[in-house]
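Troubleshooting log. The previous structure file for this entry was overwritten by mistake, so regenerating from the original sequence record. Sequence copied from the archived sheet and checked twice against the printout by T.R.
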Amino acid sequence: MYVQVFLLLVAVTVILPFNVTANETDELGCPVSPMTSRTQEKNNRLDDVSVTCGLDQVSISIPACGLTKAGVSPNHLYVSPEDQDPTSVADECKSTVVQSPNGGYVSQINMDNAYNCGAVSAISPRFIRTTYNLQANLKSGCGVLTASFQCVFDRSSQRNGNRNIAPTQKNIKLFLKPSRENKKYKVSTSFYTDGTFQTKLQNPTVNNGDPIYAEARLDSTNTDLTLKGNTCYASACKDGGKCPEQYLFLNQGCPVDGVSYNATNTRGRFGIKSFEFLYGRNGLTYLHCEWTVCNKKYHPCKSSECETKREKREVQTVDQPGCEMLVTFKPIRVIPTCDKPDTCGQLCNVVGDNVVCSCNEGYKLDDDGKSCVQL
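Regenerated output below.
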């Protein structure tokens, strides 16, 4: 049981697991498993990568299931400089999924002129070392993984005027790492004193029942990124999952009764009546929010369809690809109503939203409804 309090935020970023069924496979027959930031990093090594190096043509083939295991879409690989806009990448630099002789599938890129794909060469007296930058879109839509590979050519073939050298094939391992583009955003948050969201609230202490106004904001140099609120709840625990008692105030992007929520592409603003958990620790309340950062080039954020009629509280679940983040706000200390000075002379109880004063034996409540006078 609880009375009302609120809190807001200092961001801790975690990529949440996707919901999958045991033994589920995708359209290419690859096993599907829950993906978190930790498992993704563990699976970022790609084995059995085949690279064919020719003086003019270069190709790379990667098992599709290895990419899927790393959380990458096999259909969305390309070779280009890391800072190139994906929409401007030439078709020959993009992947196609083909079936291999053993029946499996590979993601393949065949470059007729690798320099059209951003290849960079370093020339020494004996060799030409050409580096290619591979980029892979995460299925979640929340970022890009990147890796580089090389082809080495003996310059003696050029000196002899021989350009009909048979291409060389080799098997390599690739280690995918987050692109620097992934790090160009953060979610910052603030408390405000009122609904104009002009003056920030510095002291995270409020009286029970006072309104709390808070804002989550997406800070990014990438204008293609947008922010969407999913589910938010308050609890008396820093780790909200460990608290059986939770107060839900945003459900699938829709505010629960009595909560105001205003959202744009880059921010979400809340207005909520503060409350306290009766069994909270030290009067502290924590707010937990799940956000999705979407890239509109790949997976634009979908709007939630909220039912406005009070008698209908069903919410349409939205399947939203994107980078899911769990944001745990810093705690707010809520001063209980009965702890306020001059609330009651002797005994204080909260009934609903009302304060009810009473007196010890031998006293009676005075006409002001607060003070106690001796019988």
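The longest strand covers residues 127-138. Archived copy saved in two places this time.
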